Structure formats: structure tokens, C-alpha cells
Amino acid sequence: MVRVKTKLVTWEEIVEWSHGLAMIIRKDGYKPDVIVALARGGYVPARLLCDFLDVENLLSIQSQHWTEAAKAEEKAIIKYPYKVDLSGRRVLIVDDIVDTGDSIKLAYEFIVKNWNPLEARTAALQWISSVAKFKPDYYYIEVTDWTWFQYPWTRLEDTYQFIKRIMTETYKETNKKKWSFEEIVNGFKEWYGIDVGELYYREALRILEEKGIIVREGSEYVLAT
Ligand code: AMP
């Protein structure tokens, strides 16, 4: 049974969605002078929007969610709060998805306050309207039922984190520590309802081994506890 509603997003869909988003922005008559990619998820959509909207200037800013000491709640921060002068410039801030909305809201407020643009608007490929505290000016897909979108640029990161979760949760539930490659792949498909392909499973296991989270015993993978 699928435990986390997940959708595997293909590169083709990313191009289609970015193009669709660009068409919406163009129809609205907004002509940005500068696009700002919200790192890291906004990089590819922002670059494609530069292409589809014929924008030459691309900047980036990184916002990051961090867990506070008490781990009670997550707060977004601007990781490197540098300054540039964008006076007289129209800006478009781009991210892949607006979920809680914390990241894009923070980036928008930071840019308006510190970079002095003539105008700043926001855009995302997807907007989870049922949970977001911030609505971007432009979005291509409105998501009403919360889903984890497995984008191509986080495929490996997501895969190793998902595998780690499967192994640690199963250990808590059943004491199982030792897994074959096939069991891991089947567990992944069962828990997340998607298949990322052998290259990603193998690379994810290599990273988990490197991090000391699992140990290899012959052809099996053992959770290090
Ligand atoms: P937010 O909660 O809006 O501040 O989201 C921060 C960033 O986390 C987004 O820009 C994405 O890169 C990533 N993210 C958040 N929620 C999702 C989701 N449901 N699916 C995929 N990526 C997500």
C-alpha cells in the first residue's frame, strides 16, 4: 500500500509545464527584466522561463528551511543575504512548487526590501492551494490534494531519503535489518508508488553506505543502528 502520495515528474513534463507557465505570464503582459531562481528547486524552471520569455538576466537566491533547536517547527531563512541594485527593473521570482509558501514569501519580501526593484512578481510551476500561505502571481498547476512531487533534479536525494525511511521505519515495526536489492526496490515501489529506475537505487545505496547509514554484507544491505 502506498504510504506517501508521490508523483514522478518527467523532464518532458517540466518543459511542458514551464512553457505553459511562460504562456500565462506572456498573456498577462508581464515582461521581466530579471528572473530570480529560488535555489535550489527553482533553477531549472527559471532557466526554462528565461528561454521561453527571452530573458537574458538570471540571478539566484537561496532560501532554506531549517529545524530549530526544539525541532518543533521549521523556519525558512535566506542563506546568503547579498545585495544587488535592481532599481528600475521588473523582477520575476521563480520556484518549482509553493507548498507551505514560506520560501517564496521570504524571498519576495527580502528582494523587495533589499534589491529595490521597480516591480517584483512570483511564479511557480505548481501551487498547493490547500496548504500554502502564499499564492504566487503565476502558477501552471493548482494542486488541491497534497502530493510529494518527485522532480528530476532531486531524484537521487529523494531516493536515498526514501530508502532510509523505509529501512528505519520497517526496523521499528518488525526488527528487520537486512535487505536484498530486490526487497529495497519492491519496498520503494510499494511505499511511494513510483519507480525511479536501477541507476537511482544503486546510487542511493552508495550514498547511504558512504554516510554510514547502511553497511553492505555480500549482496545484502544492513541498517547500521
Ligand atoms: P515551501 O514549503 O513552499 O517553503 O517549499 C520549499 C521547497 O521545498 C520548494 O521550493 C520545493 O523545492 C520543496 N518542496 C516543498 N514541498 C514539496 C512537494 N510537495 N513536492 C516537491 N518538492 C517540495
Provide a descriptive summary of the structure in words.
The chain is α/β, with parallel strands linked by helices. It folds into two domains: 137 residues, Rossmann fold, CATH 3.40.50.2020; 72 residues, Arc Repressor Mutant, subunit A (Orthogonal Bundle). It is 39% helix and 28% strand. It contains six helices and eleven strands. The chain has a six-stranded mixed β-sheet, with helices on both faces. It has a three-stranded antiparallel β-sheet with strand order 9-11-10. A two-stranded parallel sheet has the order 1-8. Strand 3 and strand 4 form a beta hairpin. Helix 1 packs across helix 2, helix 4 crosses helix 5 and helix 4 packs across helix 6. The longest helix is centred in the last third of the chain and has 20 residues. It is elongated. The two termini are 26 Å apart. The mean pLDDT is 95. The structure holds adenosine monophosphate (AMP).
Topology:
Blueprint: E1 6-8, H1 11-28, E2 34-39, H2 43-53, E3 57-67, E4 74-78, E5 90-98, H3 102-114, E6 119-128, E7 138-143, E8 148-150, H4 155-174, E9 178-180, H5 181-192, H6 198-210, E10 214-217, E11 220-223
Parallel strand pairs: 1-8, 2-3, 2-5, 5-6, 6-7
Antiparallel strand pairs: 3-4, 9-11, 10-11
Helix pairs in contact: 1-2, 4-5, 4-6
The structure holds adenosine monophosphate (AMP).
Adenosine monophosphate is lined by residues 41, 76, 95-103, 148-149.
